[in-house]
Amino acid sequence: RLIREFVSQNNTSQIKHVIQILSQEFALSQHPHSRKGGLIGLAACSIALGKDSGLYLKELIEPVLTCFNDADSRLRYYACEALYNIVKVARGSVLPHFNVLFDGLSKLAADPDPNVKSGSELLDRLLKDIVTESNQFDLVGFIPLLRERIYSNNQYARQFIISWILVLESVPDINLLDYLPEILDGLFQILGDNSKEIRKMCEVALGEFLKEIKKNPSSVKFAEMANILVIHCQATDDLIQLTAMCWMREFIQLAGRVMLPYSSGILTAVLPCLSYDDRKKNIKEVANVCNQSLMKLVIPEDDEMDEAKQLLTLPSEPTSEESLSKPEALSSGESGLVQASRSLRRPLFFPCSSERIQVTLNLDGIVQVLDCHLHDTSIGMMTRIAVLKWLYHLYIKTPRKMFRHTDSLFPILLRTLSDESDEVILKDLEVLAEIASSPAGQTEGHGPSDASDAQLGSVELHVPARAGQLNSGMKALECSPSTPTMNSYFYKFMINLLKRFSSERKLLETRGAFIIRQLCLLLNAENIFHSMADILLREEDLKFASTMVHTLNTILLTSSELFQLRNQLKDLKTPESRNLFCCLYRSWCHNPVTTVSLCFLTQNYKHAYDLIQKFGDLEVTVDFLTEVDKLVQLIECPIFTYLRLQLLDVKNNPYLIKALYGLLMLLPQSGAFQLLSHRLRCVPNPELMQTADGSKPSAGFKRTAASNIDYTELLQHFEKVQNKHLEARHQRAGRAEQLDRRVVL
């Protein structure tokens, strides 16, 4: 009644005096009943003031909000009721005080008393109605408070926050998308709440934001949210990880090359997901799309960009040390990953805008992440394959820049050849083949520095067929545009591959043939055999040299991939083929039986016979006889069809028959002996092969010895190598005998 009288008299001083008395002497009194009375009085003042209450809102609201913290739940309820009446009367006039009201309500939302909570919900709905109706809401002033409150761990407070975000998002005049980077991290944290209801509400809110992003990509601040997604893509909670990964997929597809500066962080998050099992199938599928989409963003122009210009177009481009934490930090857990991701934060530009500013590819950071994943033995097979695909793609698209990292990548690529998966080895070989054949490897300063590699410069190499032609089914994304040449890394690769076979005999036994056959498809088979033979010629471990030669010979004689090379060696018509034969022969001498088989392949039957004559001076072991047995089996295979047909021309191929009889005499009475003996019994009588006019039989099978080959020197080389092997065997036997004596003693 007093307030109405003062309003009618326009006596503002008395109105303020009454409100002050109600506040100071009652609402803020030490006595609980006085506080209740003060709250009722303040609400009555607001009702009496009506539309003029807006002039006194600060004085009315502050004491009520203070009572929100009262220990007495009934007092908190009275305060909630009083504020409801004040707000209901003032309506839009309370918006300038929205932050303090929101702050007080967020506390009441988590109140343990159900009556207080119920009252706060009524007040909350009223305030939401007012905000929805008004076009004067101060979003800029509200965001800092929202950003602070969104990190609350209380379920009711989280529910309260999400409900307000959904309301603000639904108001057409309020563009909450501009401030999404401020609250996105908090939203993802709420998404991991234990309450299904809150998770669902948060999922809906994030879904609405993503719809807005798809509608208006040009206004989205992708830069400020990229690292937030990187962090949550590595969350242990499946829902958070899946949602963040879906957002990342949309970001890459919508923002395009704008996401390239964040590639290292994205790969850190995405690559491990590719090895998930069916329990996380959805995450795996989305991660795969992210990986493929990101890979397509790397283009050949990234290899040609002038780095000085890039520094002018994009401010504060961090160095690789600033962009990523060290490999130890990356593998240590989420904390290191978070630091690595946050360090990538920088200004970013949307490609559809009028200012088309160049985006820098942080290749150093990408390579560091890929290298770390290759070194991590715990990662799954699909992740390793994806890493190798990335390396291959980068060598195709940005070879010049990638060769700066080749020396550091080369050892781990070689170690990956020992992987358990054939698919991983195949992809690894594709990367190594690209390194060995890319013209970028010829650039000065990029080649290997090992002095031992330089010794192979004399090896004559030929231009191979293009890798893309050999595997037409390869995806366009992975096809190499490189010109088919061998660079200095080719020799380094061959040397280190043989070293790996020497140190890991199991790898040679189980995967050696597979690796060499695939390399013959990816590179030039003649170059591979030529270089390996030249390296083995200098091999000090004679036992390994013999084993390796046997492996190479088996591949040469049996692999369909080497059909062309076999035909080239069969005739020795060209200087190149003769040069290759001599090179192979010198190394093949490490294994007597393989040397004979090489002579059979090249139709050097007289020399084969001369070699077999020397076998009488060699130490005939079980392994030796086993190899002769295998050679007899090979003679019966389709590869040596031409040799068996030449047995019909007895007069022109006497040394072929002598050589085969020589093998027969070496063999004990075994299955191979019976097989070869039966074959030789089928050789026709020369008298019966005479034609009707008495002329000589057709010389179609006749083949003269290849010119320009010194077979005497080759035979001497064979004897020299075999003497070395004999001496080495005696030394090994002597050491074994000494060891036995020590054991006895």
Question: What descriptors fit this protein?
Answer:
39 helices; endoplasmic reticulum; Leucine-rich Repeat Variant; rod-shaped; mainly alpha
Summarize the structure in short:
With 745 residues, this protein is mainly α.
Please explain how this structure is put together.
- The chain has 745 residues and is mainly alpha-helical.
- Among the domains are: 138 residues, Leucine-rich Repeat Variant (Alpha Horseshoe); 79 residues, no CATH class; 132 residues, no CATH class.
- Helices cover 66% and strands 0% of the residues.
- The chain is built from 39 helices and no strands.
- The termini are far apart.
- About 14% of the residues have low confidence.
- It is found in: Endosome membrane; Microsome membrane.
- This is Protein VAC14 homolog.
- Belongs to the VAC14 family.
- It comes from Heliornis fulica.
Largest sheet: none
* Assembly category: single chain
CATH-derived topology of the domain at 1-138: Leucine-rich Repeat Variant
Report Rg. 41 Å
Q: How many β-strand stretches?
A: 0
Q: Percent helix among the residues?
A: 55-70%
Helical region count? 39
Span from first to last CA? Answer: 121 Å
Q: Which structural class should the secondary elements be placed in? A: mainly alpha
Give the overall shape: rod-shaped
Beta-strand percentage? under 5%
| Mean pLDDT level | 84
CATH architecture of the domain at 1-138: Alpha Horseshoe
Low-confidence stretches: 306-356, 444-484, 692-702
Write the CATH homologous superfamily of the domain at 1-138: Leucine-rich Repeat Variant
CATH class of the domain at 1-138: Mainly Alpha
